[in-house]
Every structure is written in structure tokens, then in C-alpha cells.
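quick one, 208 residues, struct below
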Amino acid sequence: MRTKLVVLVAIIFGGCYHLHADSPLTSTYMSESYEDVPIVILAFQAEGKLTDELMDYIVDPENLIDIRIAIINALSWSHEGIENAEIFLAYLEGIEMFTDYDDFTSNAPWDLLICMAYLDALDDYFNVRSAMSLARKARSKNSNSYTVSIICALIEAQIAMHSGMHNWCEAYNLTDQVRNNLSLKQDMREGAVNNIFEYMDVYESYCE
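---
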């Protein structure tokens, strides 16, 4: 409810201001639904920067993808001087999983691709085309995961909202299509999904 109020007030009093203050990437707080998970609590306490402990968890394929995404969400966005995507890439190179970014983009599994995409998008949410490319690669490798599809859709919605046309209806539709795709494996908590659409549903009115 708080997000809807912020956006609606911004629309009424600030015109297009809410495009800067609120967006699909900066106003979807799915990590709040994982506050019972110790590693997510550590992410909240990390002051926006990936730690080795967090990255150890993210790279482990045995760990649930929604919790790994919740860790990244808990770090939040645009911390001055912190580039978590670069930190993560350096970590992957350091443990000799990949030699460089090109090796990563060519050979990374879907779970690491979507995590890197989300990190990259939150590092600079006004410039997410490289993040979108990574997210789409992840989705092509795992088209069944709700978590992968919704993160990819949020990044695509970010571009739609910040394009020259400010296509808010398209931003809504991108995420709504994921919500309505019943063939996807529901691998994200219901509360996290609700948090996403508490914000995104504000934009349904632009489709009328």
C-alpha cells in the first residue's frame, strides 16, 4: 500500500517525477518476504555491498534461486562507489569459474546469469540494456522459472518506462504476462510476488 500511495501522489503532484523516484527496479521489495532467512538478513546488514559470504551463497547451485534474488534485492540499488556486478565478476574470476566477462556471458548457467543481470540492473537502473541481455539469456536457458521470468520482465519494464515514449502500459503488461503464465514453476514466495505487483499494478490504469 505504501508504494501505491507514493506513486499516486507523485503522479498527481509531480507529473513525471515518479519515473525517477519510483521504477520497477527500485520499488519492488521482494526481499521483505524473506526476512526469516539468515543469509537475507546478512544482506540487509551489508550496507549495499556484496560480501564473500553472500557471493558464496549466490554461486551455490543447491541454494534456491528466489533466496539468491532476495539477497540481491536486500542490497538495494545505486550505492555510490559500489558496483556489485563488477565485484561479483571479480569473485567468479578469483575462484576460477570464468576467465572474464565474455567467458561468463557465453558459458554461465541460467542461475548465475539472472543474478548477474539483477546486480547489474540495480547498479545503474537508468542503463539496463546489458542487464536485459543477460536476463534474456537466463530466461532462454530456463524458461520454466517464475523467478527468472519476473526478474527479466522487471528489467524489460524498466526500459519501457524510461524509453522516450514512457510506455507505462507496456511496463505493466510485461510483468502481468508473467503473473498470468500458469505454466511457470512458482519458485518465488507469494508475499514476494505480492510486493512486486503492489507496485506494478499501479500502472494498469495506463492501459485503459
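DSSP finds twelve helices and no strands in the chain.
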